[in-house]
Structure formats: structure tokens, C-alpha cells
Amino acid sequence: MISNKNFFLNNKMIPIDKFFNRVLFDKKNGYYSSRTPFGHNGDFITSPGVSNLFSEIIGIWLISSWHTLKKPKKFNVVELGPGDGGLTKILIKTFERFPEFNNAVNIFLYEKSQSLKKLQKNNINSSKVRWINNFSKISKGPIIFFGNEFFDSIPIKQFLRKKKNFYEKHYFQNKDKKIVEAYKKVSKKKAQKITKFKTINKLKFIEFPQLGLNELQKIIKKISQLNGGLLLIDYGYLKPENKNTLQSLMKHKKNKILNNLGKADITSLVNFKLLNEYFTNNNLKVKKIVTQKCFLETMGILQRASRISEKMSFREKSNLYLRLKRLLDKKIMGDLFKVIFTYKFREDNFLGFK
Predict the structure, then answer these.
(1) Mind giving me the DSSP string for 228-240?
(2) Closest to 113 (Cα-Cα) out of 93, 141, 133
(3) What pLDDT, in 10s, does the model give residues 204-247?
(4) How far apart are CA 222 and CA 225, in angstroms?
(5) Rounded Cα gap, residues 108 and 132, in angstroms
(6) Structural domains in the chain plus CATH codes
């Protein structure tokens, strides 16, 4: 286990989002800097790792969106937090089957972790792909951002509300080097950031994605400049509750949130209703939020599976549909994962949303 002291500075009290940000992204000891978390030998598997069909459908959705926008000569696609690069690898193959689109598209990968960037570069061999740390180099053409399990990996703040006062959760180390939580009263100015959102301002226990909203603000700025949109697929909820959704995984099993710091993944469920309100407040349109099952089926994943399974052996076919079940089953990923699309275009007939 990595020593806790690596993630504290001068034993000061620190808000939990900043603490977990260090735990996940510290350049030396951070989770995403020191290990490969994906796949059977890692800690979790994302949808692109479950089935290539997921990535194919995202590719088809991007191509259909390009058609919706009247086929612009330059079209930018940015994947947020590209993981091991598996999704983009399939996107490239999918795009190559549509030469006109392939000539128009530029692919950018937005990645914070240097070690994951190396992994992605090993998996992707294409001159069409560029890695970026910010969006300033993208200056022309409409832009579509896409993130699968991107937002859930950005640490959140937690608050207790008592009458009109808000108290933020912090961590500190006691004399025995044990991590202890404490709640610290926040200023009125900080409280106003929460109370302005109708979605959460009446809750007694509030999860607030300040770091995530900071990232979204950069994306919204670029969308507003160039015309564009953001497609997010993540596990989360539509009805906010007084609930702590922080969770940790290690080797595909639940891990206590403060155990194995730097060796286990830490995430939280995404409040999609809050995202909807945030996008609307920033003058963007938002399509009706749907489940992953609804989105993938509306985009024709079952028809695609049926077609490619025709030449498969019984064993291959069984494997294909077992993976498909994981993506679509309501009790697994089908309903738990939600899909939101926010955009600034005149057109709004984007596929996948009922």
C-alpha cells in the first residue's frame, strides 16, 4: 500500500476532491500514472473493452452527426479520457469505410496521464490522431466531444447542509497517520455556487462536481466558438438523493474508499439532471437523456450484431451475444449507464435519442 503521506501536504486539511485528484493523478504515485487499470488484468472494464460493437456504434453516430450538419469539409472529433485507446482504434477502422467522412475528420485525444498517453500511442498507429492537453489548437470547423466514463473519474466535492449553512467534507492526517474526515463551514460565496442549481439546492447531503464543471467550461467555450456538441456516456442517475456515491474498485472487486490509495480506482455516480441544468444555464440545447440500452439499440446495435454473426461459429456467436448482454441488460450496464448530448447547432435531428 502506498503511504498516505504521499498525498498530503504539510498534514493540512484538504477538500476530498483535491485529495482524490492527487490520489488519481499525482505524477509519481497517482493511480493513473503508475498502473494500467483497464481489462481483465486491471481493475475494471469499460464498454469499448466489452465489445467492439460499442465503439462501432459511436463511430456510426459520429458519421450520422456529420451528415446532420450537412457534411462540413472539416469535422473535429475529440475523445475525452481515451483510456487504452481501444475506442479510437475502432473509430479509425470504421471511418475508413466512409472515405468522404474520413477525409473530413480530424481526431484529437485529450489525456491527462502521461503513462496512459504512452499506452494509447502504442495501441494507435494513425497520422489522423493527435494528442492534446487543451483545445486551443482546434480553431476551425464544427467540433464533437465524446467521453465514455470520463466524467465519473473526475473527483467530486461533498457537502452537508444544516438549515442555511453548508459544510464541506475534508480529510486530514491525525498524529497516528490515520486519515480522518471533518466538515468545514463554507463561505456564502461558495454556498451560492450550490444554491443556484435547483437540482441540488434542497438536498441535505450534496455531491458537487466542481472539478468536472471546470473541465466542462473549457469544452462549452470551444463549442460556443466553433459550433459543436458533447456526448457523454457514464454511469449515474436522474433523480438526485441524499446519497454518498463515491466508490472504489481494485481487481474488479469493491475496495474501501481509503484503502490501497494509488492502487485502486475511485469514481462517483454522475448526476445527469445536474448536468442537464448546467448545460441549459450555459445556453446549450440538450437532447432527452436516455439509457445506454436505448441509445445503442436505437442506433442499430442488434441489427449490426445479427449481420456480423451470420458467418460466425456457434462459440463466436455465443461470445458476441454474451458481451452484448452486458452492454444492454438493464441489470448490468444497460440502464445504469446514461447518455446525454448537449450542443449548439441549428440542426437537432441527431440519432440515438427518442
Answers:
(1) EEEEEEEEEESS-
(2) 133
(3) 999 999 999 999 999 999 999 999 999 999 999 999 999 999 99
(4) 5
(5) 7
(6) 4-344 (3.40.50.12710)
